[in-house]
Amino acid sequence: MSKGEILDPRVTCDFSTSNHDLCRDAILAFCDSPLYHDNENRYEENFYGRRLRPHVVRHLDFSLPLTTERLASYEALSANRILFAMNEVDFLMLPGEAPWEEAEFQAAYAESHAAAAHVGMPYLERFLFSFLEREIRLSDNWSLPAVEEYFRSYATESRGVSSLPSAEAIRSSCNPATAARDWLVQLAPDFLIESSPMARYASGNYGRLSSSLFKIIIDELGYGDFERKHSTLFENTMRSAELDSVPHRYWQYYLNGSLMLANYYNRITRNRKYFFRYIGAIYLAETGFITSCRIWRDVLKEALPGLDTRYFDEHCHIDIDHSRMAFDGLVRPAIETYGIFAAKEIVRGFEEARWIGEFAEQDFVRQICWKDSAERNQDRYRQIFDKVHRAWETGEITKDCLDEPKGELSITHTHDGDELCHVVSGEMEFLNGFECSTTLRGDQGIFIEHNRLHGALIHSERCNYEIYNIGDLNRWL
Ligand SMILES: [Fe+2]
Ligand SMILES: [Fe+2]
Ligand SMILES: [Fe+2]
Q1: Domain coordinates of the chain in residue numbers?
Q2: Residue 301, Cβ neighbours under 10 Å: how many?
Q3: Rounded distance, CA 296 to CA 454, Å?
Q4: Which ligand gives the minimal distance to the CA of 282?
Q5: How many angstroms is it from 194 CA to the middle of ligand 1?
Q6: Assign residue 195 a region: left if phi > 0, alpha if psi is -120 to 50, beta otherwise?
Q7: Which CATH entry fits the domain spanning 137-372: 1.20.910.10, 3.40.50.1100, 1.10.3720.10, 1.25.40.80?
Q8: What is the full DSSP assignment across 152-207?
Q9: Interval 172-219: pLDDT, tens
Q10: Which residue in 157, 186, 292, 333 has a CA-CA distance of 20 to 30 Å to 414?
């Protein structure tokens, strides 16, 4: 017998993401928890609760990596929600002033739960992030001078940016205050645990690079002063906007793109083989933040005059240091020591993080536009309902009929095609998104745009309603 022949598999010898059955079992086992089952609260009331719509997960297939065109699909949203919740098994969360529930604490951190998460995470990451290999192609010509020139030109360009799509969406929204609060909600999955992914790199033995990164980590953590910790500053910002700062109370309103961005940073910090990509991503974040935080501070303050902006003020100045520290203490020495491999990985991380950051921002822009179209979407319903109904009668399209009791909440979700909601009887609060609702009673309805986050809450004893699968709105106009 050779030295290599040690395997004696009882169940499997394959722990890679190619073992689809193993990974699928792990994902479903992870999701099967009262912490994740549907309930009737539009905001998350359980400190460890994260609604994952697990009854739907078993019908989803995460085995084939997403194409770029499918990044906004429901499968992507579901995978991003599950992946975010799985990453939390590594982060200690304690409720502070929120009620303490020992059983839920035990369930959230049970060994079997964490084991399932660690089998499922690489699989979901393969599903969600493989498209980046195709989307971002790099030449082999990266060297320290080339990276230096490229990053310096990014820094110069970024300093000259005067607005951002997210800021414009807030400013031009028909309800800027709500849009501003919604943006704070979208920043929360990252900012409320700020530096937790980064702090994973506080461990290990990797020379001077570790000390350079640790200097940034301690700044993010406020040098041990709770009041100065960046997540504390952001909690104050949220409270000043009359938002609850308990993480992740607005779970159901996190958009696919916001979760994806947070999951990307989790991926490149949890899996240490992506350390060099993380260096590129952190250079991007620290450099881009100098300007982004100024732009966000100004637009948010315009929309919410009472806002505590110290979180943003802090980043406008400290990230000037962090950007320099990231280049001189991480980018440069990493390439000097580890050569072209490090250079390519650093540029890849920079490009990937930029791509996903822009994707997240666009998701927010579209969601604001969708929420602002609430009245117009009722008009569209009135305009096309008869035609749609006739098409259903002739068997051209399908519909789902629902009869739900008072208090029933359809946890927020998205659809891959356009749909038409028609209330037959009763009263429904159609949830167009964060802090935006449309009341629908008998013979009223609304057009539901594909990929847009929405939900529903029943207010009458019973509500009878129909969802027509109309495919593409344009064919009915
Ligand atoms: Fe920070
Ligand atoms: Fe920073
Ligand atoms: Fe729906």
Answers
A1: 20-129, 137-372, 374-476
A2: 15
A3: 25
A4: 2
A5: 6
A6: left
A7: 1.20.910.10
A8: HHHHHHHHT----HHHHHHHHSSSHHHHHHHHHHHHHHHHTTTTHHHHGGGSS--T
A9: 999 999 999 999 999 999 999 999 999 999 999 999 999 999 999 999
A10: 292
Around Cβ 439, how many Cβ atoms within 10 Å?
Answer: 11
Name the closest ligand to CA 191: 1
Quick: pLDDT tens for 290-343.
Answer: 999 999 999 999 999 999 999 999 999 898 999 999 999 999 999 999 999 999
Collect residues with CB below 5 Å from ion ligand 1. Answer: 220, 230
Q: How remote is the CA of residue 74 from the centroid of ligand 3, in Å?
A: 11
Distance CA 235, CA 191 (A): 9
CA distance 219 to 222: 5
**Any idea which architecture 374-476 has in CATH?**
Sandwich (2.60)
Distance CA 258, CA 361 (A): 8
Continuous H helices in 412-470: none
Q: Is 319:289 a contact under the CB 8 Å cutoff? A: yes
User: How far does the centroid of ligand 2 lie from the alpha carbon of residue 322, in Å?
Assistant: 5
User: How do the residues of the chain divide into helix, strand and coil, expressed in percent and rounded to 5?
Assistant: 60, 10, 30
